[in-house]
């Protein structure tokens, strides 16, 4: 009996999920006959729709509606929860560690494949800033988004109850590093949420909160264009948000953010959103990488010089056929990733069936960004929008792009309800340490050194 053709998909993000979803539809006959098998290896059993993370942090969307369960969507694929640690494509073998291998203590296991889709996405790009590893907070996962929401409300609780002015000022100072989508949208949504929350504190006013955005370049949100970027700066500063352009974070040791302009900000909150870099697993493969650590790919989304290896999204350096600039590559963003996944799945299917391959070519449509409730900027198909129209377009666009009708309906229902009722201002920080109370109750009483009397 011949072995089925195994397609290994590394990663369950945009590219991984959409590629596997389309493959299981196109290869329905082969999968049913046992002639093909799709294996998806991913660290998490869900795909995170990252554009909704700021709204999840602000409480506009429930965290469980920001993620898509892979086992439900990819019901004809084999889902393996684990991480690929290295790939030997010459031998068509991937080495991976799963939850089970950690429990068994047997080490890693090898998985052979016929076709490889490598789409592990990206990780936060950090710099050797003193104190960052101890005090920095990321904003790339749903856990980080909800943790940051809980943290912000917890700092307001600390400020409300402390009698130390220095602790109060530090608790109410929030520093965000990075003026891209993640940093600006996270800051804008959380500032909106915190300003609303302040009305329920008897001694914390919105003007007591200090929000600082630190950006190393001379503008924010470069994707929406220079004019809309300047408008975004004016909008944020009009809300008393301190936007520092051409400024870097030098240190955040001892809970003091030191900026390159000499400013020292005592703070208990430093959110790092200063870019991303390719996943480390790419360096553990025998596949060709460019100077930025991304896989060298052709316009057909095949890895250069590596037959039967494919890539797209953040991990892939794909030539932009729509650009007049020589050597221009597609931007590593969700807009390209979703469209590339479609072509990638079609090309893998065509390769298995001996059919000609397609080239990926998509002109960049534009960008939309939220600046909080009812506020936003957009530059789409040459049209520039700001304020409410841009915010509405931001929501409409991402609602159309979030996977599955189930998620679309739930998100739309939550937006409708949030328009009818007041914001939720509850912090569930204890969720991050669910056993803390039980451990305290189960701990033996302290030994005070008293001896029983004779």
UniProtKB/TrEMBL annotation:
Coiled coil: none
Gene Ontology MF terms: NADH dehydrogenase activity
Superkingdom: Bacteria
InterPro entries (alphabetical): FAD/NAD-bd_sf (IPR036188), FAD/NAD-binding_dom (IPR023753), NDH-2 (IPR045024)
EC numbers: 1.6.99.3
EC top class, as a word: oxidoreductase
Keywords: FAD, Flavoprotein, NAD, Oxidoreductase
Pfam families: Pyr_redox_2
Gene3D superfamilies the UniProt entry points to: 3.50.50.100
FAD/NAD(P)-binding domain: residues covered: 6-341
Family the UniProt entry places it in: Belongs to the NADH dehydrogenase family.
Protein name: NADH dehydrogenase
Lineage, broadest ranks: Bacteria, Bacillati, Actinomycetota, Actinomycetes, Kitasatosporales
